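sorry for the late reply, my laptop died twice this morning and i had to redo everyting from scratch. anyway the thing you sent over, i finally got around to it. pasting the sequence first so we're on the same page, its 87 residues, then the predicted structure underneath. double check i copied it right bc i was rushing
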Amino acid sequence: MKKLQKGFTFKEHQKIGKDIHKLRQKLRTLDQQVLDAYGKSSKGARLTDKMLKDLGLLQKELNARLCGENPGSEKIELLACYYPDRV
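ok and here's the structure:
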């Protein structure tokens, strides 16, 4: 039998969303530093770009989970967890 996953609480989603937002900001800075130092075609630049994209995918997935777990909540409240710049 499949084990039911409990998921995150709303507060946990809020904290994780803030953490992801901070990570993306730091990673963007690092990405720019690597680009400036080694160029767009360098392996380092490709890796930081991939990390940014993967972190974005995680953010999108967790936001979708949050919305699915809280169908009665206001959309703006949910959006603020993972996309604070959009509210």
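The CA atoms of residues 23 and 71 lie 27 Å apart.
thats about all i looked at so far, will dig more tmrw
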